[in-house]
Design brief:
Helix content of chain B: over 70%
Number of domains of chain C: 2
Largest sheet of chain C: 7 strands, mixed
Chains: A mainly alpha, B mainly alpha, C alpha/beta
Oligomer: heterotrimer
Helix content of chain C: 40-55%
CATH class of the largest domain in chain C: Alpha Beta
GO biological process, one term (chain A): amino acid transport
Order of helices and strands of chain B: HHHHHHHHHHHHHH
Strand content of chain B: under 5%
Number of helices of chain C: 14
Organism (chain A): Harenicola maris
Strand content of chain C: 15-25%
Distance between the termini of chain C: 43 Å
Number of helices of chain B: 14
CATH topology of the largest domain in chain C: Rossmann fold
Main location (chain A): membrane
Largest interface: A-B, 44 and 42 residues
Number of strands of chain C: 13
CATH superfamily of the largest domain in chain C: Response regulator
Order of helices and strands of chain C: HEHEEHEHEEHEHEHEHEHHEHHHEEH
InterPro entries (chain A): ABC_transp_permease, BCAA_transport_permease
Strand order of the largest sheet of chain C: 8-7-9-10-11-12-13
Structural class of chain B: mainly alpha
Radius of gyration of chain C: 21 Å
Largest sheet of chain B: none
Radius of gyration of chain B: 19 Å
Number of strands of chain B: 0
Family (chain A): Belongs to the binding-protein-dependent transport system permease family. LivHM subfamily.
């Protein structure tokens, strides 16, 4: 029993990261219909920046994250304006290929600026808590709490604020939203800014709890999309449930079935959902 | 008239390919040309699903891997002659494509891409971890050439292999052209343009999509099998997602939805890195930039631009 | 260009005017970018350093001729296709007959599969996959011993420590890591021990707590961590975080800095690394110290522990060419390679078999060492019990 609980705790931390990545992807997909494949690499860029500010310029962690967030916001807006907007009215396949190209570019830039050695954002949380045999490192606990906080904030933003309601209106019916006076030119920018900010937070979490290295971002974005398929495209509750399900499935699969094939097992779960419930766990039929 | 002109162009291109080895003095470039011709086969397949049907599949290299490993393993374990295992390899690939195509094609657009990408990851992980069968990362060495020591041709000679691959690439290009011109091809293009409409007139679009996906996988399987016997060595590294992206790049750069496109694109992706060496670590950034700019500014690729130019000239004279 | 000018000048100073001076191109195929560059780039530098030293001390003497070495290096990105392209280019276009480098197993395996049919000699460095030297390819030699040779020594060592139940966590999808574990297991079982579980992780995994949680439940006497440094460092840290307090052994060959980036020195305290002795300043010979100093001066960065594998290749090649008395006849040079004694200039500590550097498989053997993390540093504790002659005989019985 302790082992099962421990595995669930293990899975929640990485699951929280998946949720944050998936939230960014799902809002972009819901509003713009774009599979923003470069999201993982952009998120890692944010993590790298934080690392750079902390280690090279000696900034305190929170300040470094704040600056990385701002740069991330701008980068998100730039990507929308320069890369996605020109192909918005073309066949959807073009937007996806642009996304692939962007991924290569951002990965290349990360490699050029930060090198190929792995990077760990230094923190000074090294205590380990023990609850009746189930251990949880301090840092892991904070990452889980921060993820929960961000998810709550995101939900409040979409449900309660005016901009959030406009975003939902565009997602549900673009033409009606225009008629109601929603500015459809700025909404994509807002969406990209928010999604990138969430991604940067995920990047910081990965970078402090684990490490940032070339290829990690691409791996994460694939998991993020798997979460979307699991949870339902464009659905925020779906992203939350899907992310946690994926993270915990991976941990349980590694612990009780096979560590070599844990990713395969995660994908098999995704494909089965696709076969029996194509709209996802939380999606509307 | 226009069709005649096209045939003449293809004829000339073929003559060029036949003469190519005689024009190249450094054998290294023949080696690269063999690789490029193998990529032509894979890219023609990719073009069927991506260019004509409008579904980006990111598993082409994974399917090449299935073809490559199946021909190598059949040769090792069942003592099949090389020509036979090369012929069977695409069918093994087709089996896996059927298995994976059915669930993936339940989702549209971007999500099809993601699901196929997940398949490529699964194929890669299995190739890496299923040691008893695949030897993992160490790979399979000593895969035999099509002819033995006393064969009619010297298969160790790259020129021989070049002509062998050229014949197959030409045949497969012909086959792709046939498919595209048939009723099936027209329906595939209709699916790309408006899938709902295709469904509305009572055509079961999913059958055609599955056909395009499985056929494209068979092209990849064949390309992979030929690659395995050419290099005599395979390991999972060369069948990862990066190579699947190369297949997509080949189609986009060359000209998606055209028959000439994948040929141009395949040579482009094989020879481009050779000439980008000066850029060294910036290569990845440049690659991405080329992809983004090409999609925004020349969505119909090199073949599309060439056609536009030709038509413009004809209009003027 | 600069190098040629410099070597010409140096040769003049050496007063080699009586002999006709020629240039011998030698090729390097290695990972200069990408993940493998950690190993490939230092190897390439090491060949350049050795070539420069050889040129400065009068070049390679063949009959009346003196050859100055010129290094042509291509990036194979540790990728099999790229590696065959690089070697094809060296042989077909640049007319190179001697090819060095080769840090990584996949790329090396691809080249090894066709090199037998080429008029060339291939000298493999850091690539540890055993099958590279099991087929007795006549024109291929390797300086680094296969991983299972080291794994057997490690198994004996751990068994001698009295451990009976060992849990393994490794990059088992990588062939040579798996073969290290297989050889380790064989020796452990001889002493009545067993491996209680074999858990795997991938190159990009950084959260190994699920695997470690499982291992914790099995209550082993010791754990063995086998894999690349970057994930391995996380395993050592997460093992402590999960409260696993049994001895930790490993086969990772990482530097202090690579580990402290991830784990604190306290979390690392007491960890063992059981690996080829390679280059560490603590265990280095005079040659090793000189190599470290010269390399650092030349390239502005300290050499990696495994980089001397290719430095030593270059000197082995020099001795073989001089022994064969030809640069044209690659068959003669390849045969001479299998016949030379260990050159005086080498950095690694080779254990010659029949007084020869390479055995009939073309394989060289170094000593293996047990290193332990003690207050912030890897400390060389003792040699591992390694039997090069017995392993060499065993290797000859394999052929796949």
């Amino acid at each position: 029993m302790v082992e099962v609980l421990q595995q669930i705790i293990n899975g929640i931390a990485i699951g929280g990261v998946y949720v944050l990545i998936a939230l960014g992807l799902t809002t972009v997909f819901g509003i713009l219909g774009i599979a923003h494949f470069a999201h993982g690499s952009v998120s890692m860029f944010g993590g790298y920046l934080t690392f750079f500010f902390v280690t090279s310029w000696g900034f305190p962690l929170l300040l470094a994250i704040l600056i990385a967030l701002l740069v991330g916001l701008m980068l998100g807006v730039l990507i929308e304006l320069l890369a996605y907007r020109p192909v918005r009215d073309a066949n959807h396949i073009n937007a996806f290929i642009v996304a692939l190209g962007l991924t290569m570019m951002v990965e290349g830039i990360n490699l050029e600026l930060f090198g190929h050695e792995q990077v760990v954002i230094p923190t000074d949380f090294s205590r380990v808590f023990n609850f009746g045999g189930v251990t949880i490192p301090e840092l892991r606990l904070y990452v889980i709490l921060a993820a929960a906080l961000l998810i709550a904030a995101m939900t409040v933003f979409v449900e309660r604020t005016k901009t959030g309601q406009a975003i939902r209106a565009v997602a549900e019916n673009r033409d009606a939203a225009i008629l109601m006076g929603v500015n459809v030119k700025t909404i994509p920018l807002v969406v990209f800014a928010i999604s990138t900010a969430l991604g940067v937070c995920a990047g910081v979490m990965v970078g402090s709890l684990f490490a940032i290295a070339p290829g990690i971002g691409e791996g994460l974005v694939v998991k993020g999309f798997a979460v979307l398929i699991l949870g339902g495209l464009g659905s925020i509750p779906g992203a939350v449930v899907g992310g946690l399900v994926l993270g915990i499935t991976e941990a349980l699969a590694a612990g009780f079935i096979s560590s070599a094939y844990k990713d395969v097992i995660a994908f098999v779960v995704m494909i089965s959902v696709l076969l029996f419930r194509p709209q996802g766990l939380m999606g509307k039929a | 008239m226009a069709r005649n002109r096209t045939y003449i162009l293809y004829g000339l291109a073929l003559v060029g390919f036949v003469l190519l080895p005689q024009l190249i003095s450094v054998k290294y470039y023949i080696h690269l040309s063999v690789l490029a011709l193998i990529w032509v086969i894979a890219a023609q397949g990719q073009n069927l699903i991506q260019g004509y049907t409008g579904y980006v599949s990111i598993v082409q290299a994974g399917f090449m891997g299935i073809g490559a490993y199946s021909t190598a393993l059949m040769g090792m374990h069942f003592d099949l002659p090389v020509w036979l295992s090369i012929i069977i390899a695409p069918f093994v690939t087709a089996f896996f494509a059927l298995l994976t195509g059915y669930p993936s094609l339940r989702v549209k657009g971007h999500y099809f891409a993601i699901v196929t990408l997940a398949f490529n990851m699964v194929i890669f992980i299995v190739l890496m971890n299923f040691h008893q069968l695949t030897h993992g990362e160490a790979g399979i060495t000593g895969i035999p050439k099509p002819g033995g020591k006393d064969a009619l041709f010297n298969w160790r000679d790259r020129e021989t292999y070049y002509y062998f691959v050229l014949i197959i690439a030409a045949l497969m290009t012909g086959l792709a052209a046939l498919i595209v011109r048939s009723r099936i091809g027209q329906i595939l293009v209709a699916i790309r343009q408006n899938e709902d409409l295709v469904g509305a007139v009572g055509i079961a679009a999913w059958k055609y999509k599955l056909f395009a996906f499985v056929t494209s996988a068979m092209f990849a399987g064949l390309a992979g099998a030929i690659y395995a016997h050419y290099q005599s060595f395979i390991n999972p590294e060369i069948f990862g997602i990066a190579q699947s992206l190369d297949a997509i790049l080949a189609v986009i750069i060359g000209g998606s939805g055209t028959i000439a496109g994948p040929i141009i694109g395949a040579f482009f992706v094989v020879f481009l890195p050779e000439y980008l060496r000066f850029a060294d670590s910036f290569r990845l950034i440049l690659y991405g930039l080329v992809l983004v700019l090409a999609t925004i500014f020349m969505p119909r690729g090199i073949a599309g631009i060439a056609r536009d130019l030709m038509e413009k000239r004809r209009g003027r004279t | 260009m600069k190098l040629t000018a410099m070597t010409a000048a140096l040769a003049l100073m050496a007063g080699a005017a009586w002999a006709e001076e020629k240039t011998l191109d030698i090729g390097v195929s290695d990972a200069l970018t990408g993940g493998g560059a950690v190993y490939g780039l230092p190897q390439t530098n090491a060949v350049k350093l050795a070539a420069k030293e050889i040129n400065a001390s009068g070049g390679i003497k063949v009959g009346d001729d003196v050859y100055m070495l010129n290094v042509i290096a291509y990036d194979d990105k540790a990728n099999p296709t790229e590696a065959s392209n690089a070697v094809r280019k060296l042989i077909d276009r640049d007319g190179v007959k001697y090819i060095l480098g080769f840090c990584c197993s996949g790329a090396t395996g691809a080249v090894a599969s066709f090199i037998e049919f080429e008029d060339a000699v291939m000298l493999v460095g850091n690539a540890a996959e055993r099958s590279i030297t099991t087929r007795e390819i006549p024109n291929l030699t390797r300086t680094r011993p296969p991983a299972d040779y080291t794994g057997a020594a490690a198994g004996t060592f751990v068994a001698e420590k009295g451990h009976k139940r060992v849990a393994v966590l490794g990059a088992l999808d990588v062939g040579f890591y798996a073969s290290y574990v297989d050889a380790f297991e064989k020796e452990l079982e001889k002493a009545g021990g067993e491996i209680v579980s074999r858990e795997a992780f991938g190159l990009k995994d950084r959260d190994m707590s699920p695997q470690l949680t499982k291992i914790r439940g099995q209550e082993p006497d010791a754990i063995l961590v086998v894999g690349y440094v970057e994930p391995a460092a996380f395993i050592y840290r997460q093992a402590v975080e999960l409260g696993i307090d049994v001895p930790r052994y490993g086969f990772t060959s990482g530097s202090e800095e690579q580990f402290t980036r991830v784990a604190t020195s306290e979390q690392m305290e007491g960890v063992w690394d059981l690996r080829p002795t390679e280059l560490t300043l603590l265990s280095a010979s005079e040659n090793g110290k000189a190599y470290h100093a010269n390399y650092t001066e030349e390239f502005g960065i300290a050499p990696s522990p495994s980089s001397p594998y290719s430095y030593d290749q270059t000197y082995a090649l020099k001795d073989a060419i001089e022994a064969a008395g030809t640069v044209e006849d690659t068959e003669a040079v390849a045969a001479a390679l299998r016949d030379i004694a260990v050159p005086d200039e080498v950095v690694m500590q080779y254990l010659p078999v029949d007084e020869k550097m390479f055995d009939q498989n073309g394989q060289a053997y170094t000593s293996n060492g047990a290193f332990q993390w003690q207050s912030g540093n890897w400390v060389f504790v003792q040699d591992l019990p390694s039997d090069a002659a017995a392993y060499s005989a065993f290797l000859s019985t394999l052929d796949d």
